[in-house]
Amino acid sequence: MGGGDQPLILDDCCLEETEHLLSPVVREPQPDPLNDDIFDILTGDSPLRYIGFDQQGCHSSLVYQTPNGSRYMCPDVSSQFKPVVGKIFLSWDEVYNMYETCGEMSGFQIRVGGYKKWKGEITHRVLVCNKAGKPRGKMVDSVNPTSMSGARSSCFKVTGCKAHIRLRATKGTTNHVLYEFSENHNHELISSENMDLTRKGKHLNFDDLHFVHAMSLNRIGATVAHRLQTSLKGGHHNMRGTRNSYKNVSRDIRMFIGERDVQLVLKKLEERAKNLHKFSFEVYHSEEKWHNLMAEYALGNHIWLNEMFSIRELWVPFYFRDIPMCCLMKTTSRCESSNSVFKVTSGITNTLVQFLMCFDTAIDNQMYNQRVVDFKSKMYTVSHMDNRSDFVNHFKVSVHMLEHSYECSCMGFTRVGYLCHHIFSVFRLHQIKNIPDRYISNRWRKRSLPSRVYSISQRLSTDNSEVSVLRNEVADCLNECADHLAFNVDGLSSFNQKMKELKRELVDNFPETINLLPPHGIRNKGCGTNRRLVGPGEKAFENSKKNPRMCRSCNQLTYCKKKANVGESTSEK
């Protein structure tokens, strides 16, 4: 019994039962541990003794110890960041941001622990430390050889931490009242230098996601993109996310696209139709033709046909399961040079909308190379000379201005049907912009494009929408301000505070509807397998790692000799 009216149970303590304790001997009362000066605070009914101070970078904590040796860390932060029992919060987001800020200043992460409902309304909520809970164990019989399940070796991060806050929702409003707060942790707090390795620190923002996506359009992987971003930002300490975070971006993009693939393609085509005057597209639905056929042959009440029409989204995957689709850009029917262009930018794992973006990038690269060649042809003059600075060959170009005819002594147009560069040099000297019609072959006009297509505003891969232009202006303005205040600590601090205030005022909302669903399970022709050839030795080595199957005849994990003998006797007969 303690010194008070209520009994005291010391947690983590054991009492050894001996003959002296059972003997009727009157003992002097022991001093109450609660009244002793060595015990400072309590966790439940267990006294904690202050033993020292721990410093992890900028994060500091007070270290306490229980009578059995267990240690607890109490964050040493300013009172303005600590939760206050009885405080009223106007919304749940305000509560979460408050406790999250407290965790960042202290050195721990938080998550939602649970909630209670009454008649469909949430009445209580709990926010706990990220290390709360216990690992789930699995019992495995390692002695029994017939046990097929093995023990899985995995790490766990939970330690059963009891730090938490509890809130009570006010009925009829969005207010929450904090009625319980436990601040002691049973684990070491995270150093301020390692906060970028936490779950929140590894979360990538929009700029990082856009950077990884832009690199993927030129077939640059996540690892190389992470190294490039590290160099651009000046080191790993300025980075958000690890290499694995960058590797998961492409996976998350495909998971986000999911069934939106065709819908995103249609949206991109709609934006392209606004920028290109002569570009148009039309989505053709074949349901009207189906209904006309059913009405023509009086098959509207046919059960099997109606069931097949209800699963029409599965027609393409099943029909093209063994037949490669021939309407794709990458195919063996084209020349290898065309395929090599798309191999630089596209991959076999691209979705439809990603392939369209890679196609735009490849076309933009070709247009840029053509524009560079055209520019160089107007700026440089090539003269064929030997080491003595004497002209090696002499060519004479005859010009008839009235007839608009040109003849060169090399007879290039007569031999191959193309004007030689000697005549083009004369065109440049006489400032002739257009080639005469008599020297333009019909095959030149087969795939000709108007000049406005080569302008910047009309390129396929250029996004001139209002949203893209404004986003680029905002990014440029932000970079200019950051460069202007590069070494001004006070200016950067003030600018950062204003940006944070502006960030709090913004709310993101992206409603989107899905009208079309893409087919699943299509095998594209010419996409490749992205796998190397595996030899028989490597195959045998990989097969040896597999768990042997249990024989139902002899109940052993080996190759059954009885079945082998039966097979030999059968073959002899």
What are the main properties of this structure?
573 residues; alpha+beta; 5 domains; 5-stranded antiparallel β-sheet; extended
Question: What is the element layout, followed by pairings?
Answer:
Blueprint: H1 19-22, E1 41-43, E2 46-56, E3 59-65, E4 71-75, E5 88-89, H2 92-106, E6 110-118, E7 121-129, E8 164-169, E9 176-182, H3 206-216, H4 222-233, H5 243-257, H6 261-275, H7 287-296, H8 303-310, H9 315-319, H10 336-345, H11 352-379, E10 397-400, E11 405-408, H12 412-416, H13 421-429, H14 466-484, H15 489-505, H16 536-545, H17 561-572
Antiparallel strand pairs: 1-2, 2-3, 3-4, 5-9, 6-7, 7-8, 8-9, 10-11
What does this entry look like structurally?
- The chain has 573 residues and is an alpha+beta fold.
- The chain has 5 domains: 1-134 and 157-191, no CATH class; 202-283 and 324-380, no CATH class; 393-443, no CATH class; 465-508; 536-572, no CATH class.
- Helix content is 36%, strand content 12%.
- The protein has 17 helices and 11 strands.
- The strands form 3 sheets. The chain has a 5-stranded antiparallel beta sheet with strand order 5-9-8-7-6, with helices on one face. It has a 4-stranded antiparallel beta sheet with strand order 1-2-3-4, with no helix packed on it.
- The relative contact order is 0.06.
